[in-house]
Amino acid sequence: MGRPPCCNDKVHNRKCNWTEDDANTSTFVSIKHGIGNWATMSKKSGYGRCGRSQKQRWTNRLKPDLKQDSFTPQEEELIIKLHATIGSRWSIIAQQLAGRTDNDVKNLWNTKLKKKLSAMGIDPVTHKPFSQILTDYGNIGGFPKARTRFVSLNRELKGAFMSRPEQLQHSLQNFQNFNSLCVKLPKTEASEECFFSNNQDSSNINQPPVDLLSELQAIKFVTEASNYNSPKAVFSHHPIPITDCSTSSPLSSSSSSSASHSLAENQVNWCDYLLDDAFLPSNFKDQEDELTVEEKLVCGGAQDGSNNVPSTKDFETSLSTRGTSSSSFVEAMLECENEMFMNFPCLSEDPFY
DNA sequence: AATAATGGCAACCGCGAAAGC
DNA sequence: TGCTTTCGCGGTTGCCATTAT
Hints:
Layout: H1 9-12, H2 19-33, H3 38-45, H4 51-62, H5 73-86, H6 90-95, H7 102-119, H8 130-138, H9 144-163, H10 165-183, H11 189-196, H12 212-227, H13 231-235, H14 259-264, H15 284-289, H16 293-300, H17 312-321, H18 329-343
The structure holds a DNA duplex.
């Protein structure tokens, strides 16, 4: 039954000391068999390596298009932003970084970025300031902020997609601006200035503010673009718009009006890595108080009276039925979340209540 | 100079999903 | 349809170089 085994990992695996096999592996891949048949390679080569090990070695070290130099501040910035958005999906994050592997990204995160954020007082898991986390724990039993933000975020997305055509148009406009900047325009200071400068910059008063939805759409676009094998076209620019940051960050002393210049100088707007209400539109709190009766009912409990909470499996199943690929992961995730909250409104309730 | 502690990196390993038989 | 292997992914481990004591 089933396929014959390609190898026995326990028997064939040799620890380390790859140097002697690297040349053989490269030759085998580039001249004889190409990429994708590692089991055959392991059998025929007789190098004593499991196909899986050889594949990993090739993917992480030997592939000719891999970058050998260290990560740039821009790359680090992007990794942090993507981690804040999608968590530790290293393979997806690595797809946005030409010449980097998921292992590289993961190692960078574990050894450097996590510590850097912690040193700045930002929790690397939640991307919130430690002070806010402590405050939230201090408010245990109440947790108004968490619930507010959760419901607000979801409602914002719902509104953008369903009931607020002007908002959707606005978001699409941002997305199109970003799209055209990334793909069509040559890299110029003007283009970066236009897109990355913050909303309060008087020189860009006509640019619509960049909202959360647009950010996620931009991420989606970058992911898709990378799947069309043009990561360089995207990466000549920052794939994610820089949101407004009114306070100076610990590592960047540049003013907000010179955001694009600071980026060009390898400086980073670290406060962008905070997942906070700053992402939400300024009038959001007002909108929260204007919940319609229907919306409040939806947020209040399941219509059938049950209090069932969907499992991770439900979520994954829902994702898979949409034919989710990495290219539309973020979009599918948002869609699923949206749907999940529609079907299981009890989720929007604070779990600590 | 010797040893311990630390950091960075590469490789290993287990799990779950997909695919083949 | 069920069993088995393959593959991709992410967490963990171990080695080596550097720094501190």
